[in-house]
UniProtKB/TrEMBL annotation:
SUPFAM superfamilies noted in UniProt: MetI-like (SSF161098)
A GO biological-process term: transmembrane transport
Name of the molecule in the record: Sugar ABC transporter permease
Pfam families named among the record's database cross-references: BPD_transp_1
Similarity comment: Belongs to the binding-protein-dependent transport system permease family.
Topology of this chain in the membrane: Multi-pass membrane protein
Residue span(s) of domain ABC transmembrane type-1: 75-288
Gene Ontology CC terms, in alphabetical order: plasma membrane
Amino acid sequence: MRRVSKHNRKEQLAGYLFILPNFLGVFFFVILPLLFSFMLIFADWDYLKGFAGLSFAGLGNLEKLVNDVYLWRALRNNLILTGVTVPSAMAIGLVVAVLLNRHVYAKGLLRTLFFLPYVSSLVAVSVVWSVLYNAQDGPINAFLRSLGIDNPPGWLGSTAWALPAIIIMVVWTYIGYTMVLYMAGLQGIPKDLYEAASIDGATGMRQFFNITVPMLKPTTFLIAITLIISTFQVFAVVNVMTQGGPVNSTMVIAYHIYLTAFQNYKMGYAAAMSWVLFIIIFSITLVQWRSQKKWQQHF
């Protein structure tokens, strides 16, 4: 019994040693910064002075949140971005997935082309779209002028069109992601359902809405959660293409937090805003997980 006990202890020790590097990584790079950021909510910190620049601020940072016009503008822009981008990317991705799931010429090549924007460098993609959106010499406005539109949109230079321009670019990026997940979901739908529906005289459109869409509810649930979280964390696109302008028309929460922390050196207030962003994302995810059983019911 003693030998067995010693052997078990050695196995347990070996197991703990194997997970120790991962545990240390999570502790020092996730848990510790998380706790420190929560502490910063109640402090003012000029990080250029090191810990000597750390001072207690009480609830001052939380009080600033209520009267911060830029924060509420960024939140409104984020809600518009999420509300338009998520359903648009999901709808287009589903249509593309259904079409490519059939016998289409060069199916593999088309799947790669649709998925390529999602895995490409977001900075490089943003630079390319900035050139496309150029109001004077950009290809998009040149094409619109060729159609007879004398005053095409100003895109990134216009307060009315800058946010829609960002949304179009983000939707284009996410189409490949939604397409791949929907194609995986389509593989799990039994062919018998479509054959039975065809025998009953159901049209292709009716089969799509009565079979395909309900059977893809679990996949739709997964895509909705991931896209909502991702759109609330949009940063690189705004940073490269508009820097939050013009006149804060494309300012989003993640970029506002970055400006507050690393340009205005208000690390405590930036930490407070980051926790607001966390609460928003967590609340949305919690509501979605509460309705998970409803999403998993196919019919």
